[in-house]
């Protein structure tokens, strides 16, 4: 088990992270079409039975009309710069500002369904370890709501200029960074940068997560050879450059990554501050070669992507609509594969598995990825976030066979259009 998977711990002051009482999720639909009851106890799924068959010992949540899925995970966020696009002037790296932005961003992504998140945080230069300390403080304040892991990202690691970065990277792990990473493409000696990161990872037994565009097949092949066999694992991304290579070169590079057990995290919603070029990794080609492919959000409303939503279901939607994956493969990239890339236990809607779940209004996965509005998020056996969307239509002569609610009893505001059928989304 990786250091990252060991990281979630009970919070201080006796606050419970996993609800010890029973929670019944009733009449939920599964992807195989079954309608079931799911009982959660102590942060795990205790039982799954036919709808109506399990008694509600404690609290009960009616999931009629919802599709129940393993929760999403976010393998590639940027907590230190999130939500800074609209800030006047330069981005503030004052600890209180970073902590506030990191907390808000994590909660927004939790509301989307990501109960585990991996946040890349730059260290070094004039800010030293300040942003990392702020993100770690945000992680502590969020404990019990979402599992947040920090990735330490130094700028330089080679030569005279890189000596301080290497020392700071070791200090970052001692502070609580659960993963080491960085951008080897930006170092004068990319191979030396990778070697330094792998050395620190081996010393401390932590995973590696590197930014690379992936447009240099020889460099990626060397990285794969260096990383092969490292435990608890090596992840790279966003690797959009692989999609710009000739097909034969891309396939050979994918084969090398698969042989080394390197995971690729693509960013279908756009790039991030760690790479200069946009695009998405060729998910189908990588999967065909046997590479584990996960999907993340990347930049969330910062200068690299001022409209980034941080929504894993949008990433899955883009993989299905543009990346050529089936809805099932696309959702796995933001759930099963993302959790595996982060060293987290597998989640299934079956007895004995962790109670990390996402309920989305809809009947089938394709519809959920198309219109993922109303959501209920379960973390460690309790509901931690709800999003409810209601769409209203004006009266119309059109006879629409849609699910409706009663008209609101409150009279309309003067000058407003008449209220019509209400559709829950």
State the shape.
globular
What is the quaternary state of this protein?
single chain
Count of helix runs? 12
Give the ordered list of helices and strands: HEEEEEEHEHEHEHEHEHEHEHHHEHEEEE
Largest sheet, spatial ordering of strands: 6-7-8-9-10-11-12-13
> How large is the radius of gyration?
22 Å
The unreliable regions are 1-19, 405-412
Main beta sheet strand tally, sense and closure: 8 strands, parallel
The strand count comes to: 18
- Helix amount, in percent? 25-40%
The structural class is alpha/beta
How far the N terminus sits from the C terminus, by CA atoms, comes to 39 Å
Strand share of the residues?
15-25%
| Mean pLDDT rating | 89
Summarize this entry quickly.
By secondary structure, the protein is of the alpha/beta class. It is 30% helix and 23% strand. The chain has helices at 3-6, 95-112, 130-142, 159-175, 190-204, 217-227, 247-260, 283-289, 312-321, 327-334, 336-341, 365-370, and strands at residues 23-29, 35-41, 44-50, 59-62, 66-70, 72-77, 114-123, 147-154, 179-182, 208-212, 234-238, 263-266, 293-295, 357-361, 375-379, 382-387, 390-392, 422-424.
Main traits of this protein?
425 residues; alpha/beta; eight-stranded parallel sheet; 12 helices; 23% strand
Verbal overview:
The protein is built from twelve helices and 18 strands. It has 425 residues and is α/β, with parallel strands linked by helices. The strands form four sheets. The chain has an eight-stranded parallel β-sheet. The two termini are 39 Å apart. Helix 4 (159-175) packs parallel to helix 5 (190-204), helix 5 runs parallel beside helix 6 (217-227) and helix 9 (312-321) packs antiparallel against helix 10.
């Amino acid at each position: 088990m990786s250091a990252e998977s060991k990281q979630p711990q009970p919070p201080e002051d006796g606050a419970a992270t996993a609800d010890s009482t029973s929670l019944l999720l009733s009449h939920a639909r599964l992807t195989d079409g079954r309608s079931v009851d799911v009982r959660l106890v102590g942060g795990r799924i205790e039982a799954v039975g036919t709808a109506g068959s399990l008694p509600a010992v404690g609290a009960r949540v009616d999931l009629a009309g919802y599709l129940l899925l393993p929760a999403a995970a976010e393998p590639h966020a940027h907590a230190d710069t999130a939500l800074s696009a609209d800030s006047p002037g330069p981005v503030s790296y004052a600890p209180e500002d970073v902590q506030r932005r990191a907390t808000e961003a994590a909660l927004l992504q939790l509301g989307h369904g990501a109960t585990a998140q991996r946040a890349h945080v730059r260290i070094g230069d004039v800010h030293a370890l300040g942003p990392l300390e702020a993100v770690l403080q945000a992680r502590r304040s969020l404990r019990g709501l979402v599992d947040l892991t920090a990735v330490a990202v130094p700028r330089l690691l080679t030569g005279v200029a890189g000596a301080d970065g290497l020392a700071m990277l070791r200090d970052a792990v001692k502070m609580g960074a659960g993963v080491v990473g960085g951008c080897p493409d930006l170092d004068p000696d990319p191979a030396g940068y990778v070697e330094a990161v792998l050395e620190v990872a081996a010393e401390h037994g932590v995973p590696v997560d590197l930014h690379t565009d992936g447009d240099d097949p020889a460099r990626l092949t060397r990285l794969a050879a260096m990383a092969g066999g490292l435990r608890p694992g090596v992840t790279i991304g966003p690797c959009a450059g692989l999609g710009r290579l000739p097909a034969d070169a891309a396939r050979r590079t994918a084969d090398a990554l698969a042989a080394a057990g390197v995971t690729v995290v693509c960013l279908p919603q756009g790039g991030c501050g760690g790479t200069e070029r946009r695009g998405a990794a060729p998910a189908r080609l990588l999967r065909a070669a046997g590479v584990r492919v996960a999907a993340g959000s990347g930049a969330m409303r910062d200068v690299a992507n001022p409209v980034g939503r941080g929504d894993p279901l949008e990433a899955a939607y883009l993989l299905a609509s543009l990346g050529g994956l089936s809805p099932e493969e696309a959702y796995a990239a933001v759930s099963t594969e993302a959790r595996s890339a982060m060293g987290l236990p597998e989640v299934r809607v079956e007895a004995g598995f962790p109670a990390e779940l996402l309920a989305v209004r809809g009947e089938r996965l394709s519809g959920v990825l198309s219109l993922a509005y109303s959501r209920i998020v379960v973390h460690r056996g309790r509901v931690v976030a709800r999003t409810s969307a209601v769409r209203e239509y004006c009266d119309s002569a059109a006879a629409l066979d849609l699910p409706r609610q009663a008209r609101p009893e409150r009279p309309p505001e003067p000058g407003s259009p008449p209220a019509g059928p209400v559709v829950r989304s």
